[in-house]
Every structure is written in C-alpha cells, then in structure tokens.
Amino acid sequence: MMRCVEMVAEEDDDEYAKLVRRMNPPRVVIDNDSCDNATVIRVDRVKKHGILLEAVQVLVDLNLVITKAYISSDGNWFMHVFNVTDQDGCKLQNKEAIDHIQKCLESEDCLASPAATWPTYGAAPAEDQSTCIELTGTDRPGLLSEVCAVLASLSCNIVKAEVWTHERRAAAVFQITDEITGLAIRDAGRLSRVQDLLRTVMHGDGRASSTRAGGVPVGAERRLHKLMLEDGAGGEEAVAGEDGRCGRARPKVVVMDCTERQYTVVILRCRDRPKLLFDTLCALSDLHYVVFHGTVDAERGSKEDAYQEYYVRHVDGRPVRSDAERLRLVRCLEAAVERRASDGLELEVRTEDRVGVLSEITRVFRENSLSIIRAAIATRDGTAEDTFYVSDAYGNPVDGRTMDAVGDQLGDVVLRVKKRGGGSGHDAKTVAEGGAVSVLGSLIKGSFQGLRLIRSYS
Fold first, then answer.
1. Is residue 111 within 8 Å of residue 105, measured between CB atoms?
2. For 126-144, how does the pLDDT look when each residue is reduced to its tens digit (9 = 90+)?
C-alpha cells in the first residue's frame, strides 16, 4: 500500500482557551541548588494535550538524562518536575543549554522548533530543501542495502535517515536531496518512480510515501513510533513471552483500575536506558491516552531498574474499558520500550559524504551476513556520520571475545570496544563471528579510506 504524507495542522483552540493561556503563561524554573546530583527543572503551564511529551522531547533532544520525574495536573493546570543530568551524570552548567531549555519550554510550539527536528545527529537541511521518504514493511537481511541502492541509482543523496526494526517489521524515515541541485526533488514523475521502485523493494506488503516538506514536523523518532504502531509492529499481534531477543528480559507492564478516581494505573519496570521516558510517552500519546499524574524513577538503586507509574485516561475521558484494550496497551508499551533496546554490534562509520556511499557500506554488511537492527544516518560538513546496530543473519548479537585480534587486523581503522551493562549470556559466541567482523573491517578499510569505526555490543 502507498500513500502520500499530508501535513494536517492542529485545529485552533477556542478563544476562551487562548485567553486562558495568554493570562497564564508557562513558568519554567531551572534549579541547580535544591538537588545534590541533578538539575531540577520545574514546568508549570496550562494543560494542553501532548504538552508532557513536548517537554520531554526538548530535554532528550539535548541528550539529557532524566533520572526522575513527577507529573501532576490540577484542573486546567499541569506541573512537571524533571531531575536531569548530562551524559556524564553531572548537573547542567552550560548557560546556552539552560537558556535554550527555558526558551523552548516556555514556547507554545516547542515541538515545531528547528532544534526538535532530527535530534542528536546534526542540523537538518533548511525548510523545503529536502524530500522526506517514509517506508514500512517486513524486515529481512539486506533490506536497507536494497533501499539505498535504489535511491543511489536514481541519483538521490541520503542526507539523514532513521531506521528501526521490531517483531520482523521495519520502518524508516529518509531525508533525501537531488544529487545535482542538492535540493528537494520537485519533479512529480520522478517522485512517483522513486515510490514505485521502493514499493517493489518492500515486496508489495510495505508502504512507500513521500512529501516535499523539509522533514517531518515532530522529529524522525517520533514519526517512527507512529509508523510502527500503524503498521501493527508490537501491537495486539506481538508474540507474548518472558524473554525478548536473545534472552533479554521483556519489560514488565501492569495495567490496573483505579475505580475510585476513574483512572487507569499503568506501571512499567524495565532496564533503564536513554530516551526510555520519551518512548513510553510516545506510546501512550499514539494510543490517545492522557497522563494526569505520574512518577518516574531511574535511581532506585540499580542501573538496570527503571520505574514508571502513570494515572491515565483515554482522550474521551474514560479509563480502560475492556480486556482487549488493556492487552493492547500492555503490548504497545512493551514494543515502544524494545524498539530502541537493540542488542548487537554498534558500528559508527565516518567518511567523506558522496552519493552512493551508504549503498556501498550497507552492501558490505549484507555480503557478510550482517543484519541491520537499527540505524541513524547523518551528514555534517561534508562528512557522513552513520551509526548501525547489527546482528548476524539469525538475529544473534556479535560476540566480542576476539576484538583485540580484530583491532590488530583493522590496522589504521580506529576501533573502540564498549560493553553495555549486563552482558552475561552474550559472551559465548563462536570465533567465526569475530572472523566475519574481521573480513568486514578489511573490506571497509580497502573501500573507504579514512573511515572511523566504533564498535560496542551487549
């Protein structure tokens, strides 16, 4: 199935709501004194659907770690309190970052700000200078390589991309430009051909759509959550079980009734990781639930234990009303947590940007039986900065026992090994896997001079 992306503006609120907001502007306090180990950010503002997710996106776009959060609403007023640190666990000291947070959180449309689009991987092209392509379909080894090859053959340069896979489904958002002009592709016939060929690559069961707008308004990761939910990945059809991929424990989600206050209580416990709060709020928002009260704690004495508790209602004002709705909520929250919790080998590739370079890199992965679980593609100042999470063709993580030997064989290619916590159970793979990575390193070294490779795996 194929469809074109339509940008639909949110309907204006009534005049009374606008008056209330003007009379009660948001109040943001950023406090470095009241907590010993974190910066405390307090946000008070008139209640508006989605405002909690907007605030969290502002923070995660800056790569901040949210260690605790308190959410409460009283009538038409919302109060959010976030304890945040930088990636090193330190309080925020950068005045520019603090001023940016203050400005965004006091804005009425922080999600639409340029800083909120394509976070982490560099600035996006200016508005109307790129074309956005969205894909969903069945995942398989080599799929990204085929997509990149199609785009390269049509002289399309991939400027940015996010690719996720989960439950044998794949979703991707690409920002592309014309090879010659470096701008958005404006020819309708050419766009139609791009869509037709990509639909063929997806083997007929996927979706390829495009728009000329300069990216998607709420960020690629936000859009990917919506695409995977619409595609059915991780919904009611997800396979239930005690263990996830490669023995990783599934998140524990409990949905209970709070009959006295007419809320549904959602409790989630899982291994903590970056952007966990953002992902769970995306799931609740996409399922049309409103969070009225909540507590988030990633400081419960274990780095592998994050606790989230929400009191929610559907946007129609009612709590969960059936076992089927309860099951869907559980499955979708599990999927939202698992999509970003990728096992496998992390490869960061840096090389001079040119049309087709991504196609060549992914072809090397495919020819060496490496499957891409997740990818973030970006270009900055003429340099391609790509991060891939890969496994073998069977979904098993690549082992690191032979990394010292692999590093020697890679020669002048920089290689860094990093263990992500709790790696027991993933360290008894065969030497053959390390050999495959050695061959991969040799091929990349020969094809792309000056390449930088960073590897980490669970």
1. no
2. 445 889 999 999 998 889 9
